[in-house]
Amino acid sequence: MDYKALAERLLPGDYPALASYEEKYPPRNLPKGAQVTRLAPSPTGFIHLGNLFAAIANERIAHQSGGILYLRIEDTDLKRKVDGAVEAVKNALRYFDIRFDEGAEIDGDNTYAPWYQRQRAEIYRAFVKHLIEIGRAYPCFCSEEELECLREEQTAKKEITGYYGKYARCRNLSEEEIYKKLDEGKPFVIRLRSMGDPENKIKFCDAIKGEITVTENDQDVVILKSDGIPTYHFAHAIDDHFMRTTLVIRGEEWLASLPIHIELFDALGFERPRYGHNCSLMKQDGETRRKLSKRKDPELSLEFYRKEGYYARAVKVYMLTLLNSNFEEWYLKNPDKPLEEFKFSAEKMSKSGTLFDIDKLNDISKNELSKLSAEEMFSFLKTWADEFGSEEEKLRFSESEKMLKVLTLCMGIGGKKRRKDITTASQAMGLLGYFFERPAEFEAYRVEDVDKTAILKGFLAKYDAKDDSQTWFAKIKEIASENGFAAEMKDYKADPEAYKGSVADVAEVLRIATTGKANTPDLWTIQQILGETETRARIAAAL
Ligand code: GLU
Fold this sequence. Notes:
Layout: H1 3-10, H2 18-24, E1 36-39, H3 49-64, E2 68-71, H4 85-95, E3 102-103, H5 121-133, E4 137-140, H6 144-156, H7 175-183, E5 189-192, E6 201-206, E7 210-215, E8 222-224, H8 232-242, E9 247-251, H9 258-268, E10 274-278, E11 281-285, E12 288-291, H10 302-308, H11 312-323, H12 327-333, E13 354-355, H13 358-369, H14 374-388, H15 391-395, H16 400-410, H17 425-436, H18 452-462, H19 469-482, E14 485-486, H20 489-494, E15 501-502, H21 503-515, H22 523-530, H23 532-542
Parallel strand pairs: 1-2, 2-3, 9-10, 11-13, 14-15
Antiparallel strand pairs: 4-5, 5-8, 6-7, 11-12
The structure holds glutamic acid.
């Protein structure tokens, strides 16, 4: 068969010489040992924990070796494409401080661009044409229905499904048959002519799993679809070669395609990057472990962490704990060091399923947030509120001095009782509302039948915002005595029948009137932060 003529018929026109691509995309000029890694998401709009898992590994390996991390968008499947998806990927990853050096919509070197696969059609076709010319690829005219029939037949016979061996009907079409179909205008795809034999096992050195054995590929996979766009398998081989990728950490769901990728790289005459297949994130569900699911587990989506306001460092610490077996110990010794100082290694990544436990993440979050200064807490919460908070929540940060005081008080910053139960920004913001907005709802009192009016009136009569906390408290005691409450707890305990209640009940009335809440930090400090006018206004409103 005249393959050259066939290639010309299938993909007419002049394509640049293949060698010119080698010149256009030369090997990168990087120090020895520097790794070039990438993230290659499809623009589906859904970016998940598995992506972050791989992103952290790729980012660490690239940057700690003095290499490059780039972002490539694998948009060959138009059906799955969603508008704004690239922005979504970038935003989601930026939150976790994944910095790309190059790539789609990244301000960086564009020697290896374009970064969108749809913009790389010419180079893919040039190589497809070459494979046809050397007899390693051929046109296939089978329709969807025919392929479906084939699948059914194979399933019924309990054979491996797919287009291979004796089932690869178009593989051995004669020249005459091919041209006849082309003349009839039949649509076609281009398939790889596989030379593999599933009897042959290949030893493969996975960067994470170590030496594994895979079966040689014998599937004549589609490399160019009927619309002239390549499949993922083919496009990624071209791209990883010409973007000079040296290492790919990706999910283990790709392990099944590895034999195809090995054969494609060989057929193209390219040296393969190293691959490391990381294990899937599992969730304990009752007695069983299962993969995190998009439908059932909101915590799979990275959006979840930003919307709830998880502290990025906490999520990263947990991810690193899951990613590298020696991270936890390192972190115990170096709790305040930048995470970049940890020496990450692909070899220390888990070889089988990793359990993702949101309670563990929450514990880490509480601990991380309890280390923040008031200024750090301010900036963390403000960033969250600017994007996800209500209008009221956003406004709270315009009074920055007040907010810093509120945070110091509510989080116990610098005090003996540092609050250690805050997991997210949304939770924290929920605790601060009463400092900025008058309470609309009031929590229940412990003692219901107390004469609140007398207490509130008594307070308004005595209140002076200039009082220090001792003077202030002495006045509360006076109000207690005047209204039949024990001014001293011990007196009340000694003879509870003699009083309507204790000074604590009096304070509670004032507390709920001021904040709407039965439990708050020190009330004197709260009233100091609110200021005299607001404090009086709230007590008056409660009256
Ligand atoms: N585009 C593939 C995905 O969406 C990337 C696979 C790879 O990293 O090679 O998962």
